[in-house]
Amino acid sequence: MKMIATAILALLSSAAYADVQIKMAPGSQCWIYQGTDTRYKGAFSAGQAITIAIVDTQIIDGQAKVIVTDGRDVWFNGPDLSLDGNRETNDPVIVIKKSGEHQIDLWEHKTGLGYGQPLFVKLCATKPKR
Fold it and tell me: Count of domains in the chain?
């Protein structure tokens, strides 16, 4: 029984850290994700403005609570592990500092704590300057 519980825990742990690729549909400036994964990767360009909204279900004191989060509580790790965002001004809009692949890890930064619970994520980005 202990082996089965360990296997299930390992499966859940690896699922929570699966990388979901952020890809905008052609002609769209927004990406939507529904599921239980809490780590996302996508390529962004310097100067792009990002808005993000997350609706998360968490079990608090035995009750399901809906938690809504925006860019103020989401960390974008840039290509050199730099942090993009405006934490000092509490601005919900994240401005990309360096072009390249960025990672959002909701679990690591205390968003998406409803482990294994469904999440809804909507991320929108201004078009990159050419």
Answer: 1
Report the C-alpha dihedral over residues 10, 13, 36, 106, rounded to 10 degrees: 180
CATH number of the domain that 82 lies in?
2.60.120.380
97 falls within a domain = yes
H-helix or E-strand spanning residue 51: strand 49-60
Cβ(51)–Cβ(124) under 8 Å? yes
For 8-41, the pLDDT digits (tens) are 444 444 444 568 999 998 889 999 999 888 889 9
Q: What proportions of the chain, in percent to the nearest 5, are helix, strand and coil? A: 15, 45, 40
Band of pLDDT at residue 109, cut at 50, 70 and 90 = low
Over the chain, what is the mean pLDDT?
A: 77
What the block records as the tokens of 80 is 């050199």
In-domain check, residue 130: no
Give the residue from 127, 116, 125, 126 showing the smallest Cα distance to 56. Answer: 116
Least Cα distance to 67 among 105, 108, 121, 13 occurs for 121
Which 3 state secondary structure label does DSSP give 127? coil
